[in-house]
Design a protein that fits this description.
Blueprint: E1 3-7, E2 10-12, E3 18-25, E4 33-39, E5 45-51, E6 57-59, E7 67-72, E8 77-82, E9 91-98, E10 108-112
Parallel strand pairs: 2-10
Antiparallel strand pairs: 1-3, 3-8, 4-5, 4-9, 5-6, 7-8, 9-10
C-alpha cells in the first residue's frame, strides 16, 4: 500500500521561500510520474508540478520560474522548492502520482501572508 507524507509547509511572508518534502512508502508504479498538487479552499486540487522517473519536469504557468520540483529516488522522496511566494500560493499542498492513483496524504499547509 502506497502512502504519502508531506511536510515543510508553514507561514511565510510574500517573497519568501519554503521547501516541501513528500516521503513515499510502498511500491509506486513507475508508469506514473510524481507530482505536487495544491488545493485552495472549496476548490478542486490542481496539479502544480510534475517530474518523471528520468527527471523531466513540468509546471503550471502560475508557478513557472518560482517553483522547482526534484526527486531522490533512493529515498523515495519528492521535493518542491518554492521561491518568491505570493499570497495566491496559499493552499494545502499534496503529492501523488500523475494521474493521482493512490490515496491522498494529509497534505501540508502553506500560508503566504504578511
Amino acid at each position: 500500500q502506497v502512502q504519502f507524507v508531506e511536510s515543510g509547509g508553514g507561514l511565510v511572508q510574500p517573497g519568501g521561500s519554503l521547501r516541501l518534502s513528500c516521503a513515499a512508502s510502498g511500491s509506486i508504479d513507475s508508469r506514473y510520474f510524481m507530482a505536487w498538487y495544491r488545493q485552495f479552499p472549496e476548490k478542486q486540487r490542481e496539479l502544480v508540478a510534475s517530474i518523471t522517473v528520468g527527471g523531466s519536469t513540468d509546471y503550471v504557468d502560475s508557478v513557472k520560474g518560482r517553483f522547482s520540483i526534484s526527486r531522490d529516488n533512493a529515498k523515495n522522496t519528492v521535493y518542491l522548492q518554492m521561491a518568491s511566494l505570493k499570497p495566491e500560493d496559499t493552499a494545502v499542498y499534496y503529492c501523488n502520482t500523475g494521474p493521482a492513483v493512490y490515496s491522498w496524504g494529509q497534505g501540508t499547509q502553506v500560508t503566504v501572508s504578511s
